[in-house]
C-alpha cells in the first residue's frame, strides 16, 4: 500500500509540474504575441504618416513656390511640421503615462492595471470610430484626450499604444520571474517583440494600398481587446509574480480544480489515516514502558543527589571562565559591527525607500542614459519621412521603398533583443566570488550591456548624420538593434538596481522624465525646417555629441562594482 501511494504521489507531482510548465509557456507565448501585435506600434509612425499624406491630411498647408529656373515646386514643410508635432505629443504621452500607470501597478497589481488599460483601449477606439471622417479636422490634441472627436484617425491608436505598453512593460519583469535563470533573457525578448510591433503600421500601409481603409484597421484593433481580457483572467496573476518563485506557485482563474491536485488531496487523506493507526499502536506500547520507568526513577534519584554536589563545584569554576569568554566575545562583536557599517549591500539591511532610490546616482545616470538615446531615436523616427524626401529629391517611389525597408527591419527587433538578455544572464549558474551577493553579480553583468547600447547608439547616430541615401539601409539595421537593446536593458537595470517593491514607480518616474526631455525633438525639427532649410546635418551632429553623455552610466556602474569588490576583499582579509 505504501509503495502504491508513493507512486501515485510521484505521478500526480509530475502531472502538476507539467501543468505548471504548460501554463508558464502559454503566459510567455501569449505575452509575446500581445507585445508583437499591439504594444509598440508608435514607432511605425513613418509608415502611417505616408498613408496620412496620401489621404490628404494637412494637405491644405502645402503651397506652390517658385524654385530654380522659375519652376513651380510644392512646398509641404508646414504639413511636415504638423505631423512632427503630432508624433512629439504621441511619443510624449506614450512615455509620460508610465508614471501614473507605474504607481497604479505597484498599489493594485497586474490584473487591475491591465483591466484599466483594456477599458481605455476600448473607449479610445470607440471614440475614433464615432468621429467625423473629414481630414481637415485632424488635430494633435486628440492624442492627449481619448475619444476627442477630430477624425477617424485622431490618435486613438496612439492612446491604445500608450496604456497597453506600460501595462505590458511592467508585466515583462514579472513574467521573467517565472523562468529563474533566464529572467533577463525573457525581459529583453518581450522588449524585442515590443519593438517589432512597429511593423504593424507597415501592414496597415500595405492593406491600405489594397483598398482597406484605416478606419477598418483600427476597428480590428479595438476588437482584439477580448484577447487581452482573456489573457488577464486566465494567464496573469491578480497581484505580481514574486521573485524568487515559491514552490507550487499558481496564478490565474481556474474553472475547476485539476485532476492532479485532487489526487494529491486523496493521497494526503489516506496518508493521514495510516498515521493515525500507527499512533494508536504506539500509545499501547507507551503504557507498558511507563511501569518499567517508575522503578528506574527511584534509582536515579539517589544518583542525582551525588551528582548535584559535584555540579555545584564545577559550576563555580565554569562561571569564572564564562565571564572571561564573554568579555572576549563582546570585543569581537564590536569589531564586526564596525565592519558591517562599512558595507553598503548586506541582505539584512532594510530595502531603500522611494526617496532614496530617486536621489541615488544610479537613478540620475540611468535617466540621462535613457533620455539622450530616446531623444535620438524619436527625432530620427519623427523626421524620417521629410529626411527621405530631402535625400530623394521628393521622389514618392523611393520614399515609399525606403519607408517599407525601415518598417521591415523593425521586425528583426524580436530576434536582436535576446542577445542583450544573454549578456545580462551570462553569469547565471556560475559560482560567485566569496562574499558576492546575487545583486552584485547581476549589477556587474549590466555594465557590458549598458556600454554596448551606448556604443550602438553612437554608431547609429553617425550613420544617420551622413547624408547618403544608400547608407540609410545600414542605418535602419543599426537603429533596430540599438532600440531593442535600449528598452530591454533599461527595464532589466531597473529590476536589478532598485527594490522590486518600487519597480513600477521607478520605471514610471524615469520614463516620464525622459518623455519631458524628448519634447526637445520638436524644437530640433523646428530648427531644421525654419533655420536650416530642411537640412538636418548640424542638428544630427549636435545629437551625436549629446549621445556621448550615455557612456557615463556604464563607467559609473563599473567603478561602483570595483569598489564593492575591494570592500569584500578587505572584509575577507579581516
Task: Supply the number of helical segments.
Answer: 22
Tell me the overall shape: elongated
CATH class: Mainly Alpha
**How many strand units?**
2
Layout of secondary structure:
Blueprint: H1 2-39, H2 45-55, E1 63-66, E2 72-75, H3 77-96, H4 98-108, H5 110-129, H6 156-176, H7 183-196, H8 200-209, H9 214-223, H10 225-234, H11 259-342, H12 354-358, H13 361-382, H14 384-392, H15 396-410, H16 413-424, H17 438-465, H18 472-497, H19 503-518, H20 520-530, H21 537-547, H22 552-573
Antiparallel strand pairs: 1-2
Report on the structure:
The chain has helices spanning 2-39, 45-55, 77-96, 98-108, 110-129, 156-176, 183-196, 200-209, 214-223, 225-234, 259-342, 354-358, 361-382, 384-392, 396-410, 413-424, 438-465, 472-497, 503-518, 520-530, 537-547, 552-573; strands spanning 63-66, 72-75. It is elongated. The model is unreliable at 131-164, 255-266 and 334-348 (pLDDT under 50). It starts with a helix and ends with a helix. A hairpin with a 5-residue loop joins strand 1 and strand 2. The protein is an all-alpha fold and 574 residues long. Helices cover 74% and strands 1% of the residues. It has a two-stranded antiparallel ribbon.
